[in-house]
Write a structure and sequence with these properties.
179 residues, alpha+beta, eight-stranded antiparallel β-sheet, globular
Length: 179
């Protein structure tokens, strides 16, 4: 867990501050062995855009709390979940589980048709109710909400901007790193 990191400036400035508090920095490149092993178990070869995204953002703190000090986080869900696969979440455990295959395959088919390119599910990111995040070779970010709405983004800042623009009261963030 971290101490308070104060948020100032535009929505983009605040998002970049949160990403830095979560462990991101310009030029960040993580070892992709664990990530590639996870996808290869399901016979999936990661598209180039997904590799670039995961190489930069995988392993960041997954729980972002706004205006909540560390000592008050216990037992409370984070405000923003930044959960890239593989992680300790239910999605990772069930990603290749045959019992859920039909649901995941149908969503993947729908969003890949929308995108016009083959995609892979790479993350669950969002404010309270997360969006399933998909990527292909182009590097565009495609999200699908529980209600089936699909959106396209061109960066992680673009994706998170709405949340930050609509929550001007977020003064500081504390983050939770998964062990």
């Amino acid at each position: 867990m971290s101490d308070k990191t104060y948020l100032t400036g535009s929505a983009e400035d605040k998002i970049l501050t949160c990403l830095k508090a979560a462990g991101w920095h310009k030029g960040r490149r993580v070892d992709m062995t664990k990530v590639r092993d996870f996808y290869s178990k399901g016979g999936i070869i990661l598209p180039a855009g997904a590799v670039r995204f995961l190489r930069e953002y995988h392993g960041l703190a997954s729980g972002w709390y706004f205006n909540i000090p560390v000592e008050k986080q216990a037992g409370r869900a984070p405000d923003v979940t930044f959960s890239l696969f593989p992680n300790k979440g239910w999605e990772t455990e069930q990603y290749f589980d045959e019992r859920y295959k039909d649901v995941f395959d149908e969503d993947l088919k729908t969003i890949s048709e929308y995108a016009g390119e083959p995609l892979v599910w790479v993350a669950s990111i969002g404010y309270y109710y997360y969006d399933a995040v998909y990527m292909g070779s182009t590097g565009k970010i495609f999200t699908m909400r529980d209600d089936g709405e699909i959106r396209t983004y061109y960066s992680i800042v673009d994706m998170l901007s709405w949340d930050f623009e609509h929550h001007p009261n977020w003064e500081y963030v504390t983050v939770r790193h998964e062990p």
